[in-house]
Amino acid sequence: MKHKVQPLVDIVDSAENFYLYFDLPGVNESDLDVGVEGHVLSVQAKQLIGDPDKPETYREKNYECHYELGETIDVEKIKAKLDQGVLKLDLPKIAKKGPSKIKIDVA
Question: Does Secreted count among this protein's keywords (predicted)?
Answer without folding.
Answer: no
